[in-house]
Every structure is written in structure tokens, then in C-alpha cells.
């Protein structure tokens, strides 16, 4: 069954219906789970069965989406990867596991109702929590067993381009379908019919004397009738939907007269069954309906479009932290908190989808030349606006659930720029303006196709896009001015000078951002739709080309109309809620504002899917981008998109891994009460995960995207860096640590009073030391056998004998299996002791109950970590054994995907600690947001600096024609930036998050690592290099014919050598004066000058260096600009060759001037801060120093992007290095006899 085998119209219709049902299923059943788990009076046995039914339905919806929705947009991979994806994701196997579980759950609900109604006083038939713990796992185990044959039979068929059941014998498929029909439909329906017929007869048709029943008995019967009616309705809908699907599935293997559309209809019926259940609960069960109303109850004060509280003074409080009013009941507060958590979860998913989807839109349009049409540039601007909205709405709704907002000046600046969401609404306003312009473009393109008046030129597009962003900034300017952070409320407040101002602003927002855009778009699109679809036209009079143009216009118009309709639905809801809330302060509750905000985010996230579903051309480009290679007559593109996607996801996981596990170490290190033995084991696990991410990165990045050097250098790199040997040492350490944690939990829970089995610090040191020693010894064979294959340009393992690799693979497999078995054995005993062992004879006091709760919480956390480890590492071990012990061909991409699973295991651990451990979550919230934000931004910038400037060096080094003097200067600048980023990182991370050691070790660390001295050597070298670039430009442009002023290789070597010597000498005083001092309870590296005049002299020398450099560059570049752009033209016309030379000079000069301007802007604040800190009494905190240093780091990060944006040939080389793209030869440039300009034509 393939979506590709049916017409596009039917496929799009089915995918649309399924998409709506998936959203309804997940939302409705999540609400069911939230209500039952949130309210204590709803936690009765039958409701827990309904929770299990809801979870099963959610699983159906999640795993049916890849099979029926994503298959329209993406090309399925082939080979082993395709088969694995079929069995785990795109084949829908897990969806049918959830479906089987829901069937079995319905049968148990019928049995429960039978005993509750027929034998109400029989304790044997009563459903207890103990029985529930058996029933629910039994449902899932039976569901997995029933679907095992389908897991084994499902494979990817290249001929069909889709997943298909491939049974070795025909009778097997028939037997499986018959088993499915009997087990999943006939038997359950028979049982439920038998039970419910007896129940209905007892409740409704058995004669009873109402006068003999007490009031309580009548109430019990009424309640039983209500619950029974609800579950009977659910079961009846199940019977109708599932009988149809099972019957057609069985008949398909007997005789196949049915088209694929029939199977899609039956699948829609099953998903409809999952979607309708929550509505049945709400309609039939009054108690359930009341709880829904309570959760969405409107009993808080009004909020604005991002949920602020309006005070009587006109101030508006943004919900940065949970806002609770003292006169509200605790249940209402709990409702608001749960609504906030639910909103955060939904928004997190939508933000992720929005950023990925809209980034893909931008890549598709900018990458393919035939997609670069005017309206698509407007779609790129719309996608950028949506990305901006998603990026800046995240800090407000997601980070606010985790971190405490800082106060003071930092809090005020964060409110205006980050946590207040102001920039998010700038992006939102820009998207509105862009949609209006798209409607105008469609209007002129359809109504006046031959008129040039409405055609979009590049100049008009630049004006429209610039106008959109200027309009957005102007509309949101008042909010930037009035937002401040108030320490008393710990929230961002809008402090309007007058009470009427917020209402006036809200009305203006409603009119400008909702009424006017919707009216304009409705008017224009009504004319366009009438002209394209309803105005009669003689098709016989149209040529084939005109019919093609008309079809294209319809397709593009349909896409933008759908986007505009979704915009209208989402924005009109938010705007109405927004405007009404400011005139009636008791109109809506927190859930209403959460829904309205989520709808805005949904509008941003859904647009890429609309382009993919409605626009066939767009869908084809997405498939090309995510598929394989294609050949064109104009260019041959060998674009390994898989490499790019894997590299991007890998780098994201690395950043999350390092940031999250660093935060774990900091929390345990900085809080005295968290320094317990098990937490030190978690620190060892976090350090192992950080090192694994650090050392696995070079292996993946180099192997996927770069070429390694040959010879001895390649061999050494393989053994130490690109082979990943050092990564597996911390990998094995993490395995060892998890086993040690399981032992610690076992002895703590099972033998809590035995002091000999308690984990002491002495034992802890031995365990940690032994874990690293064992890991190093276990990985020693990898170091010895790792070599470099020059033909494949890959690191491989070359074993002298076959039995050696067999032995090592078996040892690896034995290690993982033994670890998993030990943890299963120990944790099973621990779980039994904590959750199932009866303590009726010895009742626990309050303190013992508290200890038991803590043990349960910690044990649940480490069991979850161990389970994720088993899943991820089990896959890695199987791949390793199959690769070396079988003849199965496994590509490096597949190896990398498996390695990413291990990296995912490392990255997810901090989130498990935060979700399952209340104390850990509190420590994260108590952590300073400024340190978190600065550290995160710093890590992102460091990755950009190192990656971008390495690409610059590779381009210049690998291409002979790029090895020109000015390019070698740019290469020296790139090396300086890499070194600056490397050494400034340790300074800032230590200063923000760690306490510096004392004594001689602390002094040496300050001078060499944590003081940042080496960073400023590289910084001064970059300054000297930029001045040298200015001098080179000056001589090249002003004196092009003077050979004595030409930059030769000898001069270049002297200049580079002198720049580094000068940098070292200039920074020697910093090495001598740098030391550490204790301040605010922590140690920091500072400059301690013996005399005050020395500090003044150092500051003056630094200012003199910066001012001199900027003065020289201004003087030289002003002369260069005058010669290139402002000098009067000669009386004699320039030849074509001379015009080409001038164009090249202008392009290169403009590029280096832009780099120099950004340098001046970023280094200026650094110099001012340095002078103020060392020459005045002004108190400058380390956070302010870090922000200024990040500005300098931003200067280093932005340079490679400037080269790519402003230099066409550099951009081509970047594509060749990163994407492996081989582009057709460029048009011949102008030739010249002038030797000094030959260098420039090559850049």
C-alpha cells in the first residue's frame, strides 16, 4: 500500500484528513490523560484503563503519520537503512502495537464493568491497583507478541518505493491476517457483546422497586449506568471501525481486488475511532465534562497576546514565571501550572517543527535556481519571519518553566531583548505584512498578467522586504520602550505612563494586524479565485503553453490562499481574545490564552507542510534535496544531502550533550546538599558523556565532509582523533558507571542498614578510577589496529588475524549484555522492594515515608537512564558485530546514525534528571539565567567560529588558484579567530560557572588557560592582519603598476612572522600581571599590577593600538574608495578587460572594508570596557566582561559568512567543500596583462 500508487488529488486529500485526525487524536487523548492524572477523585481503576486506552490511541496517531503523511514529501532511503526505517518508523508497526493494546484494554474494561455491575460486592472481581499493574503490562506485552511476525516480514521494496510485507510463504500472510481478524476483531467483539448484553439487561431491564432503594443506592446505579453507557459507546464505535479494517486486510491476502484507496479509508476509520473517544467521554459522562470545564475555567484576569496580567495602574505583567493570585484556590493554581506545562510541551514541538520546516523552505528556494522567482522570495521572507517568531517565543514560554529570571540591569535588558518576546512579535508583524504583499502579487499576476505595473522586480522585492521589517519594528516600538523587569513580581511588566495607552495600542494592533490584512486579502483573493476557477473560458482557444501557465498560476495561488486562510483562522482568534481581554478582565482563563498563543505558533509551523502538500513542484524539490543525486545538462551535482542533515543533527546533539551535562556537573559541584555518592557517579557519567561527544565529533565531521591527509599524518590522526578511539574510552566508562549505580541502588534499597555495603567516598574513588582504567585497557586493541585507508580516505580497523576481530566483537557484545543483565537483575529486586513488597505488619512513620519517596524518585530516574542506555547501546553493539562478523555491507552513514543513537543517549540524560527529579529541577530553576544564556551563546559562537574559519582555511589550502597573498592574510586572520575562540572559551566558562583552584596550580591556570592571555595574543594578531590587508589594498588599487609595492610571498612570510612576534611581546605584561583573587566567595583571574601607573600604561597602549589600527584603516580605505568609486572617469573609455579588473577590485575591497567595519564596531566596546575597568573605580561585573568578549567572538564568527556573501567565487568553493558540489565552469573573466591584478581575478 503506497501513497505513490494513487492520484495526487486522492493522496493529498487522504493526507490532509489524516493530519487533522492525528492532531485531534493527540490533543484529545492528551487532555484525557491530563484530567485523570491531575484530579485525585478521577484516579479510579477504570479511569486508569481509559488512560492506557488514550496512550494507545496517541501511539497509533504518532506512528501512522510517517507512513501516510510524510511519504508524500520525502523519498524513502534504500538498502539496510530503508528496511530498518520500515520496521521501526515508516511501516507503521508501532502504530499497530498501540492499536492491539487499545483492543485488549477495551476487553478488560468490559470485564471490569461486568464484575462491577453483576457482582458488585465480590472482592475477587474488584479491579485494584495491584491488578492494574498486571493488566496494563499484559496488554502491551500481548500487543508486541501479536505484531512480531509483521516486524519480521516488513521490508522496503525498491520496485514499489515503499514498505511492504514480504512473507517467505504465501500461507504465512494468510495465517497472519486470519489471526489478526480473529484476535483483534471477532474474539474481542464476541466477548464485549456477551459481557455488555448481560450488563445492559441487569442495569436497564431487570425490574427493581425504586421505593426499596436508598438514595445512595440510586446514585450508585445512576453512576454505573453513565459509565457503562460511555464504554459501550466507545466499544460500539471500535467494532464498526475495526471490523471494516480487519475484514479488508484478510480479504487482501485471499483475493486482491481492492485498490489502495480502500485501505486508506479503513485506516482513516481506525484513526477516527481513536479521535472520537475523548468526545464520547465529554458528551456522555457529566463528571468528565465538569473536569474539562474546570481545567479551562475562566477565573483569572485578562492577558494580552502573550499572556500578561493587566493591573489597575495600566501595567502589564508578562508570564515569565508562574503568576498566581493570593485569592485563588490551590486547585486553580494547580490548573494554571499544568496548563503552563502542557502549553510548554506543545509549543516546544511546534517551535522545533517551525524552525526545521521553514529552514527547509529557505534552503529549497535559495538552492534551486528555477525556484528563485519573485513570489518565492516573499515566501523566504515569510519563512524567516516565522523562524524569528519561533526562536524568540521560546525563551518566554519554555525557559521560563526552568530558570529564574535575573534582576537589575541584566533582567531589564533580557526583558527587552529576549524573555519579553518583543522580537517574536516583530517577526509576526513582518509575516502579516508579507502575506498582504503576496496577495497583491497574486492579484496583479492573475488579473493583469501582461502589465508591467504589477510585476515584481528585484528592486521592488528589496523595497517590500525592507518595508516589511521596518513596519514591524515601528509597530512594536512602543512595547520595547515600556517593558521593564520588576523584582517584586519577578516578571517583565509593561509600564505605560497613562492608563488609556495600553487600550489604544491594543485597538491599533487589532486593526492593523488583523482587520486590515484580512480585509485586503479577502478582497484580492476573491477576485483571483473567481478569475481562475469560476470565470468561463474557452479552453479550445488556449494554446498548450497558456494552459500550462494557467495551471501553474492555480497551483501557486492555491498554496498562498491556503496559507492565508490558516493565518486568518489563527490570527483572528488570537486578536479577538487579545482585544476582548483588555476591556473585560474576567473574560477568559489561562487555558484560552495558551490555546490562542499555540494557534499563532501553529500558523508558523504549518506553512512548510502546506507548500509540500499543495505545490507539486515544491514537493519534488524537497524530495530531491532529501534524496540522492541527479544530473543536469548545465551542471553535475553530487550533493550528499544525507551528509549535511546528519552533520547538522549531530552538531545539535553535541551542543545539547555538552551544555546539558556541563549543567549537571555545575549543579552538583556548586550545591553542598547535592554532593552525595550517587550524584558523584552521575558526575562521572556526565563527564564521560561530554568527552564522548567531544571525541566522536572529529570522526563524524571529517569522515562525512572532509578529506584526511595521507601518510604518517593521516595514520596519527586516525589513531588519536578521526578514528574515534578516544571517544569509546568514555563510552565504556559510562557503561561501567551505570552498572556501579545499579549496585549502589541495590544496596541502598535492599540493605539500607548495612554499613559495610554503603558507598563511601573511598569506595567511590576506587570505582571511578577503575572505570577509566578498565575502559582504557578495553579499548587498547582499537588503538593498535586502527589505520588509514588511503584509497577510501577512511579510518579502518586492520586486524592481523580473523580470530582477533571475532574475539574482540564477542568481548564487546558480552560487555553490553552482561551490563544489561546485571542491571535488570538488580533493578528488578529494587523495584519489587520499593513498589510491590508489602509493609502492612510494620507501618511506616512520616520520616520513613519521606525516605521511601526519595528512594523511589531516584531509582525511577536511574532506571529510566539505564533503559535508554540499553536501547541505544544495544543497537550500537549489534551494528558493530554485524559489520565485522558478517558480510553485510554497512555504509559509513549507517554507522554514523548508530553512533548518533549513542550520542542521543548522552544528550538525553540531563533532561531525564530534570523531569524525574524534583530537587534537581529546583536547582536548575535556581541557577542564574545570565550564566546559562551567556554560556549557551558562547558555545554556539565557538562552534560557528571554529567551523566557519576551518572551512575558510580548507578552501584556501586545497585550491591552488586561491593561494594568493590577500587570501593568505585572510587565512592568518581565520587562524587567529580560531585560536581566540578556543582560549577565550575556557576563560568565560570558568569565570561564569566554576570556582578557580588556589595555590600554584591556580596561578599557572590563570596565566596559561583561564586568564585568556593566549586569546589576546590571537586578538592582537588579527588586528595587525587587518591593518596589513588595508595596506595591501591601498598599494594594489592606488599603485597597481609599481612592482616594488606588490605583496610577494617573501614579504608575506615576514609580515605574518612579525605580527605574531609583536602580539606575543605586546601581551607579555598580561602574562606577568595575571593572578587570581577571592571575590564574592569565589576565585577569579584578575590583573594585579605592582604600580598603578603600569595599569594606566597598559590601558593607554591598548587604546593606542586600537585607535592607530582604526585610523590607518580609515585613511587607507578612504583613498581606496575614492580611487575605485569616486574618482572621475577618464576621457578614454575603458576596455572590457579593464572593466573586469575594476569590478574584481571593487568586490574584494568591499568585502575587506565590511570585515574591518565590523571589527571596529565589536572591538570598540571591548577597548572601552578594558579602560574603564582598569583606570576607573567603576564596578564592572564578570557578566558584563563576558558580554563584551562575546561581541569580539561574534566578530570572529561573522567573517566566514561575509566572505561567502560578498565574494561569488568564495561562495562556490564553500559549496564544494561543504556539500561536495561540482559546479560547471564559470564564465571566463576578463584577462589582463597587469600582473598585480592576476591575483585578484582568482579570488
From TrEMBL:
Task: Tell me the compartments it is located in.
Answer: Membrane
Q: Does the keyword Phosphoprotein apply?
A: no
Single GO molecular function: G protein-coupled receptor activity
Q: Does the keyword Isomerase apply?
A: no
- Source species, domain of life: Eukaryota
One of the record's GO cellular component terms = membrane
Q: Which residues form a coiled coil?
A: none
**Similarity comment:** Belongs to the G-protein coupled receptor 1 family.
Name of protein: G-protein coupled receptors family 1 profile domain-containing protein
Amino acid at each position: 500500500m503506497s501513497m505513490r500508487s494513487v492520484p495526487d488529488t486522492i493522496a493529498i486529500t487522504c493526507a490532509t484528513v489524516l493530519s487533522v485526525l492525528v492532531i485531534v487524536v493527540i490533543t484529545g487523548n492528551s487532555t484525557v490523560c491530563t484530567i485523570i492524572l491531575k484530579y485525585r477523585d478521577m484516579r479510579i481503576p477504570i479511569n486508569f484503563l481509559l488512560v492506557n486506552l488514550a496512550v494507545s490511541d496517541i501511539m497509533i496517531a504518532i506512528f501512522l503519520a510517517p507512513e501516510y503523511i510524510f511519504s508524500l514529501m520525502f523519498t524513502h532511503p534504500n538498502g539496510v537503512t530503508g528496511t530498518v526505517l520500515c520496521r521501526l518508523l515508516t511501516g507503521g508497526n508501532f502504530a499497530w502495537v498501540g492499536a492491539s493494546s487499545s483492543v485488549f484494554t477495551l476487553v478488560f474494561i468490559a470485564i471490569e464493568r461486568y464484575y462491577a455491575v453483576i457482582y458488585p460486592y465480590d472482592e475477587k472481581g474488584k479491579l485494584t491497583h495491584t491488578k492494574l499493574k498486571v493488566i496494563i503490562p499484559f496488554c502491551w506485552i500481548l500487543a508486541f507478541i501479536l505484531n512480531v511476525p509483521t516486524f519480521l516480514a516488513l521490508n522496503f521494496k525498491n520496485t514499489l518505493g515503499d514498505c511492504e510485507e514480504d512473507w517467505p510463504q504465501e500461507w504465512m500472510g494468510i495465517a497472519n491476517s486470519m489471526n489478526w481478524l480473529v484476535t483483534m476483531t471477532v474474539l474481542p467483539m464476541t466477548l464485549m457483546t456477551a459481557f455488555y448484553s448481560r450488563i445492559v439487561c441487569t442495569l436497564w431491564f431487570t425490574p427493581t422497586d425504586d421505593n426499596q432503594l436508598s438514595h445512595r443506592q440510586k446514585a450508585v446505579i445512576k453512576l454505573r449506568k453513565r459509565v457503562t453507557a460511555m464504554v459501550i459507546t466507545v466499544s460500539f464505535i471500535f467494532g464498526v471501525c475495526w471490523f471494516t479494517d480487519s475484514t479488508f486486510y484478510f480479504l487482501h491476502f485471499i483475493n486482491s481486488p481492492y485498490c489502495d484507496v480502500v485501505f486508506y479509508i479503513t485506516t482513516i476509520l481506525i484513526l477516527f475511532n481513536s479521535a472520537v473517544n475523548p468526545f464520547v467521554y465529554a458528551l456522555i459522562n457529566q463528571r468528565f465534562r465538569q473536569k474539562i470545564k474546570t481545567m479551562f475555567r475562566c477565573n483569572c484576569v485578562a492577558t494580552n497576546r502573550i499572556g500578561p496580567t493587566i493591573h489597575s495602574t495600566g501595567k502589564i505583567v508578562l508570564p515569565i514565571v508562574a503568576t498566581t493570585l493570593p485569592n485563588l484556590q490551590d486547585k486553580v493554581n494547580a490548573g494554571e501550572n499544568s496548563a503552563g506545562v502542557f502549553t510548554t510541551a506543545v509549543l516546544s514541538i511546534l517551535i522545533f517543527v517551525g524552525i526545521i520546516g521553514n529552514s527547509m523552505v529557505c534552503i529549497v528556494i535559495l538552492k534551486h535556481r528555477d525556484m528563485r522567482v519573485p513570489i518565492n522570495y516573499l515566501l523566504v521572507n515569510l519563512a524567516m519571519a516565522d523562524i524569528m517568531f519561533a526562536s524568540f517565543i521560546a525563551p518566554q514560554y519554555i525557559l521560563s518553566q526552568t530558570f529564574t529570571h535575573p534582576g537589575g540591569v541584566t533582567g531589564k535588558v533580557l526583558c527587552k531583548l529576549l524573555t519579553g518576546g518583543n522580537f517574536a512579535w516583530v517577526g509576526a508583524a513582518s509575516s502579516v505584512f508579507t502575506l498582504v504583499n503576496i496577495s497583491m502579487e497574486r492579484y496583479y499576476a492573475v488579473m493583469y498578467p501582461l502589465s508591467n505595473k504589477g510585476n515584481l522586480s528585484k528592486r521592488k522585492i528589496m523595497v517590500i522586504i525592507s518595508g516589511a521589517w521596518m513596519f514591524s519594528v515601528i509597530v512594536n516600538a512602543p512595547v520595547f520602550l515600556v517593558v521593564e523587569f520588576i523584582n517584586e513580581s519577578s516578571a517583565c511588566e509593561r509600564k505605560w505612563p497613562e492608563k488609556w495607552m495600553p487600550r489604544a495600542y491594543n485597538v491599533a494592533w487589532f486593526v492593523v494586524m488583523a482587520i486590515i490584512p484580512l480585509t485586503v486579502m479577502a478582497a484580492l483573493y476573491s477576485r483571483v479565485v473567481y478569475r481562475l476557477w469560476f470565470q468561463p473560458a474557452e479552453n479550445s482557444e488556449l494554446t498548450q503553453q497558456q494552459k500550462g501557465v494557467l495551471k501553474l498560476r492555480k497551483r501557486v495561488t492555491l498554496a498562498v490562499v491556503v496559507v492565508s486562510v490558516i493565518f486568518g483562522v489563527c490570527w483572528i482568534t488570537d486578536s479577538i481574545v487579545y482585544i476582548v481581554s483588555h476591556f473585560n478582565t474576567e473574560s477568559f482563563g489561562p487555558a484560552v490564552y495558551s490555546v490562542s498563543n499555540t494557534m499563532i505558533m501553529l500558523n508558523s509551523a504549518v506553512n512548510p507542510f502546506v507548500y509540500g502538500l499543495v505545490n507539486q513542484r515544491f514537493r519534488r524539490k524537497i524530495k530531491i534535496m532529501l534524496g540522492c543525486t541527479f544530473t543536469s545538462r548545465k551542471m553535475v551535482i553530487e550533493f550528499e544531502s544525507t551528509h549535511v542533515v546528519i552533520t547538522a543533527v549531530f552538531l545539535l546533539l553535541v551542543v545539547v550533550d555538552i551544555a546539558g551535562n556541563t549543567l549537571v556537573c555545575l549543579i552538583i559541584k556548586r550545591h553542598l546538599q547535592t554532593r552525595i555518592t550517587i550524584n558523584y557517579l552521575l558526575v562521572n557519567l556526565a563527564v564521560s558523556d561530554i568527552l564522548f561527544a567531544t571525541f566522536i565529533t572529529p570522526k563524524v565531521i571529517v569522515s562525512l565532509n572532509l578529506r584526511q591527509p595521507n601518510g604518517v599524518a593521516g595514520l596519527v590522526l586516525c589513531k588519536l582523533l578521526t578514528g574515534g578511539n578516544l571517544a569509546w574510552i568514555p563510552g565504556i566508562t559510562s557503561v561501567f558507571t551505570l552498572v556501579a549505580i545499579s549496585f549502589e541502588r541495590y544496596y541502598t534499597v535492599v540493605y539500607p542498614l548495612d554499613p559495610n555495603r554503603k558507598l563511601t567516598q573511598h569506595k567511590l574513588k576506587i570505582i571511578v578510577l577503575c572505570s577509566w582504567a578498565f575502559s582504557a585497557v578495553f579499548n587498547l586493541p582499537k588503538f593498535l589496529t586502527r589505520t588509514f585507508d588511503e584509497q577510501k580516505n577512511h579510518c579502518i580497523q586492520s586486524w592481523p588475524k580473523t580470530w582477533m576481530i571475532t574475539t574482540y566483537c564477542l568481548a564487546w557484545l558480552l560487555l553490553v549484555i552482561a551490563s544489561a543483565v546485571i542491571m535488570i537483575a538488580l533493578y528488578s529486586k529494587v523495584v519489587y522492594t520499593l513498589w510491590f513488597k508489602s509493609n502492612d505488619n510494620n507501618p511506616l512513620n512520616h520520616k520513613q515515608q519521606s525516605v521511601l519517596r526519595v528512594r523511589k524518585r531516584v531509582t525511577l530516574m536511574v532506571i529510566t537512564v539505564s533503559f535508554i542506555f540499553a536501547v541505544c547501546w544495544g543497537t550500537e553493539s549489534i551494528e558493530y558485530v554485524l559489520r565485522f562478523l558478517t558480510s553485510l555491507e554497512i555504509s559509513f552513514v549507517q554507522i554514523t546514525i548508530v553512533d548518533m543513537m549513542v550520542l542521543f543517549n548522552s544528550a538525553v540524560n540531563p533532561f531525564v534528571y530534570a523531569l524525574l527529579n524534583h530537587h534537581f529541577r529546583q536547582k536548575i530553576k535556581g541557577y542564574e539565567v545570565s550564566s546559562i544564556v551567556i554560556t549557551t551563546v558562547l558555545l554556539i559562537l565557538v562552534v560557528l567560529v571554529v567551523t566557519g574559519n576551518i572551512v575558510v582555511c580548507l578552501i584556501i589550502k586545497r585550491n591552488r588558484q586561491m593561494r594568493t597573498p590577500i587570501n593568505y592574510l585572510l587565512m592568518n586572520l581565520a587562524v587567529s579567530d580560531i585560536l581566540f575562540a578556543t582560549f577565550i572559551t575556557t576563560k568565560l566558562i570558568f569565570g561564569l560557572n566554576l570556582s578557580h583552584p588556589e595555590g600554584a596550580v591556580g596561578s599557572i591556570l590563570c596565566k596559561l588557560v583561564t586568564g585568556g592571555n593566549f586569546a589576546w595574543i590571537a586578538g592582537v594578531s588579527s588586528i595587525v592582519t587587518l591593518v596589513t590587508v588595508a595596506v595591501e589594498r591601498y598599494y594594489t588599487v592606488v599603485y597597481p603598476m609599481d612592482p616594488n609595492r606588490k605583496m610577494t610571498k617573501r614579504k608575506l612570510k615576514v609580515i605574518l612572522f612579525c605580527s605574531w612576534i609583536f602580539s606575543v611581546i605586546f601581551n607579555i605584561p598580561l602574562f606577568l600581571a595575571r593572578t587570581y583573587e577571592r571575590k564574592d566567595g569565589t576565585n577569579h583571574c584578575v590583573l594585579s599590577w605592582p604600580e598603578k601607573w603600569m595599569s594606566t600604561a597598559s590601558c593607554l597602549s591598548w587604546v593606542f593600538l586600537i585607535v592607530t589600527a582604526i585610523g590607518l584603516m580609515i585613511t587607507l580605505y578612504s583613498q581606496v574608495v575614492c580611487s575605485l568609486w569616486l574618482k572621475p572617469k577618464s576621457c578614454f573609455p575603458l576596455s572590457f578587460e579593464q572593466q573586469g579588473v575594476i569590478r574584481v577590485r571593487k568586490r574584494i575591497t568591499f568585502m575587506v572594508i565590511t570585515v574591518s567595519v565590523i571589527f571596529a564596531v565589536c572591538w570598540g566596546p571591548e577597548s572601552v570596557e578594558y579602560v574603564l575597568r582598569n583606570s576607573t573605580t567603576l564596578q564592572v561585573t564578570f557578566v558584563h566582561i563576558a558580554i563584551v568578549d562575546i561581541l569580539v567572538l561574534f566578530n570572529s564568527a561573522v567573517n566566514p559568512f561575509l566572505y561567502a556573501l560578498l565574494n561569488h567565487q568564495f561562495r562556490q568553493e564553500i559549496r564544494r567543500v561543504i556539500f561536495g558540489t561540482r559546479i560547471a565552469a564559470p564564465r571566463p573573466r576578463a584577462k589582463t596583462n597587469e600582473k598585480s591584478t592576476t591575483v585578484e581575478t582568482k579570488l
